[in-house]
Design a protein that fits this description.
- By secondary structure, the chain is an alpha+beta fold.
- It has one domain.
- It has a 3-stranded antiparallel sheet.
């Protein structure tokens, strides 16, 4: 299974500025479907332990919602 790590950038309410987080994706596809998809496996943010808002973080949500490779 192919994997890639990318930076996802967006507004961070905790820092009150633009910030980037690291997201790791796994590549997958369905038989008969020409599209290739990505599943988010892991997201890393330097401030996650301090802010405790991972579930409501707009950058985290953006990383989770990306689905095309």
């Amino acid at each position: 299974m192919a994997r890639k790590t990318v930076y996802v950038r967006g507004y961070c309410p905790y820092l009150d500025c633009t910030h980037s987080i690291e997201a790791t994706y796994a590549k997958y596809s369905f038989l008969g479907d020409p599209a290739t998809y990505a599943k988010c496996l892991n997201v890393y943010c330097n401030y996650a332990d301090d802010c405790n808002q991972v579930e409501s973080c707009p950058i985290f949500r953006s990383a989770q919602s990306r689905s095309l490779w």
